[in-house]
Amino acid sequence: MLNSAVVISAGSRRRYLSVAEAEAEFGISRWTWRRMAYDGRIASSKVGTRLLIPVGECDRVIREGARPRLAEAVKRLPA
């Protein structure tokens, strides 16, 4: 499922992805990853100004289909 963006070398995987890397890898916007992290829906770590997401959390989001539903997005639109 993960492509070469996540692989450091043969047999060695990264433990964390930046939100930009998660966006490129999984097609979910960096703002959605940030919102899920800040809302506590996914585990994350702050290193300086960077927000890092464990690869396992990224996999879980995809596996569980944790993308925001359209109905939730529509509720946030101004009237």
Task: Summarize this entry quickly.
The chain is an alpha+beta fold and 79 residues long. It contains four helices and five strands; from the N terminus they run βββααββαα.
CATH fold title: Arc Repressor Mutant, subunit A
Quick one: biggest sheet? 3 strands, antiparallel
Q: Which band does the percent of strand residues land in?
A: 15-25%
Look at the structure and give the mean pLDDT. Answer: 77
- Unreliable spans are 1-10, 68-74
Calculate the terminal CA-CA distance, rounded to whole Å: 40 Å
Gross CATH architecture: Orthogonal Bundle
Radius of gyration computed on alpha carbons: 14 Å
How are the strands of the largest sheet arranged? Answer: 3-5-4
User: Helical region count?
Assistant: 4
Topology, number of strands:
5
Portion of residues in helices?
40-55%
Overall, the morphology is globular
The secondary-structure class comes to alpha+beta
Count structural domains.
Answer: 1
Helix-strand pattern: EEEHHEEHH
By CATH reckoning, the class would read Mainly Alpha
